[in-house]
Amino acid sequence: MQLFDTYYKEIYNLLEYDDYPNLLKRIIDLTLDTEDLVYYKKAADLLDWLELNQNNIDEINVRFKVILEDLYNVLSKKEIKKRKYLLEVNELVKGYPNSAFALGPISFTISEGEIIGLVGENGNGKTTLLRSLCGELAITGGSVKYIFERENSYDLRTKLIYIPQRTKDWHGSLLSNLQFTASSYGILGEENEHLVQLVIARMGLRGYRHLNWKSLSSGYKMRFELARMLLRKPHLLLIDEPLANLDILAQQVVLDDFRNIAKSLFRPLGVVLSSQQLYEVEKTSDRVIFLKQGKPQSVTNTGSDASLHMEDDAELIIEFESDWGQEPIREALTSIGLLNLQLKGGTYIAIFPSVVSQEQFLQLIIDKHISLTYFRNISNSTRRFFL
Ligand SMILES: Nc1ncnc2c1ncn2[C@@H]1O[C@H](COP(=O)(O)OP(=O)(O)OP(=O)(O)O)[C@@H](O)[C@H]1O
Q1: Final residue of a structural domain among 75, 97, 124
Q2: CA of 275 to the centre of ligand 1 (A)
Q3: Which residue among 122, 128, 136, 272 has the greatest number of ligand 1 atoms within 8 angstroms of its CB, and so is best to mutate?
Q4: Which domain holds residue 155?
Q5: What pTM was estimated for this model as a whole?
Q6: pLDDT tens column, 90-148
Q7: CB 163 within 8 A of CB 229
Q8: Could you tell me the distance, in angstroms and rounded to a whole number, from the CA of residue 246 to the centre of ligand 1?
Q9: Quick check: helix, strand or coil at residue 309?
Q10: What are the CA-CA distances from residue 366 to residues 124, 343, 379 (Å)?
């Protein structure tokens, strides 16, 4: 059970950093992992207590320790789920009548616990791909194979959830809507009450639970959709532009949430998310698919093994910002073999032959005293396809 011990230790360590908001989220994740009403109730009681005792840090620390140890005892005995393939997409093509646009052919797979980022400029087929994957659009070629048990198309819709960019409005309070969602999935009585409270807190919505649709900002509406999704316990989540209406901090929080929820050891979830926020998505996704005019330009691995997939002869591409003008920059960089220099929106993009290293570039910056306010090596980033 070493895997769980490492996973648990990472969460427990948050206590040492007094990172209580994140710790609470992770405690809720672990509680949901138990799939046991006894633990749902304990965590829901903790939420009620916290609401009245927010400043009692010493007691918070004690209570968090107790619940964490409790969760360790139950989860360390639970079987870790072996991750399975969820979806196999083979040479998928989707065209529209009276439109020159065609998506694909595109092939890829997705498994439990995996996050795929879908990037591309406006109108390049991200939404078309997501809608084709969930069966909302009839594809014109190839196949989409769902590799999980399902009884009928209604059951498919509970196991595979598609959240579009614009979601429908709803009546009543956020809390009553989520209670209704849970009840329509057979979660009733005490379990409904506690589970909904946990999911609300998990998505940072506790202070908003009595508000209605009109009173929520678009970022919170999206969190509501994510809470609803969690209650439905899907295998696969397809989500269109979840970061669109969020400020940068909220984007990072939501991406962390996706990662933690997708990578659960006991209830792993496959996620395909589309976004224009390239770097944020690259940091979170295991793979990035970049679409240009409907065609996949690359499937880039962005996880820790990314370097394994870097081509040996790939050029070095550096994105940077400096208050130096183009001419002196060009002159300086030429000395280490600059192939091309572009200036877009105040950001330089310099391309060097593969033999030039990032260290050589940085050394030159130091030696020539070039001012540098921002720097990123994008040689292995999907960003290079936007050039
Ligand atoms: N129902 C439709 N009939 C005809 N063409 C369509 C239809 N829906 C989408 N398209 C076209 O398909 C192309 C891809 O659109 P899609 O919405 O998939 O792109 P996207 O990458 O999601 O864009 P955005 O980032 O703007 O949401 C566009 O050229 C669009 O005009």
Answers
A1: 75
A2: 14
A3: 128
A4: 85-307
A5: 0.85
A6: 999 999 998 999 998 999 999 999 999 999 888 999 999 999 999 999 999 999 999 98
A7: yes
A8: 22
A9: helix
A10: 40, 21, 21
